Recover the amino acids of this structure.
């Protein structure tokens, strides 16, 4: 069983940083569900149809009401909806080369080559975007989070963190 701070773990980071993989590993040990903010925001797995903001926030908030959970995602505006209930925040602040390698290893997940290429371009802009899904926004979320938090900066650090849980 996980320690109390990890009972409700929120994982943020760029696309390809390993959020989903880490979330599954923590959830397995915590015997709890994983909620991907991609699944909350997007209606379909092809990432073609977005859910409305109100409905997405409601789904994310509902997921955060469970006793134990792991929620992972890039969308800062949805992270804001669940962070008040989180007991631990993990930021996967990996360099672009590692995120790109993660994206390429994962592949398009059933989408077209053009859609996947668009995702790669979007992810590469993480450090330059001016949105709630940017590096700057995640840095602010991490900085102001009042609970336990862990910043991880390489795949090795992620592996060490996951191995200790």
């Amino acid at each position: 069983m996980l320690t109390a701070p990890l009972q409700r773990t929120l994982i943020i980071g760029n696309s390809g940083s390993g959020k989903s993989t880490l979330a599954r590993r923590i959830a397995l040990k915590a015997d709890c569900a994983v909620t991907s903010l991609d699944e909350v925001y997007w209606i379909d797995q092809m990432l073609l149809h977005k859910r409305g903001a109100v409905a997405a926030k409601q789904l994310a908030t509902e997921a955060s009401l469970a006793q134990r959970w792991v929620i992972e995602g890039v969308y800062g505006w949805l992270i804001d909806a669940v962070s008040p209930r989180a007991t631990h925040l993990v930021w996967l602040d990996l360099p672009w080369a590692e995120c790109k390698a993660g994206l390429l290893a994962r592949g398009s997940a059933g989408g077209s080559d053009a859609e996947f290429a668009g995702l790669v371009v979007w992810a590469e802009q993480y450090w330059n975007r001016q949105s709630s899904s940017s590096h700057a926004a995640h840095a602010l979320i991490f900085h102001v989070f009042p609970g336990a938090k862990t910043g991880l900066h390489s795949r090795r650090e992620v592996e060490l963190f996951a191995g200790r849980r």
About this structure: Strands lie at 8-13, 33-36, 69-73, 88-92, 148-152. The chain has one domain: 4-154.
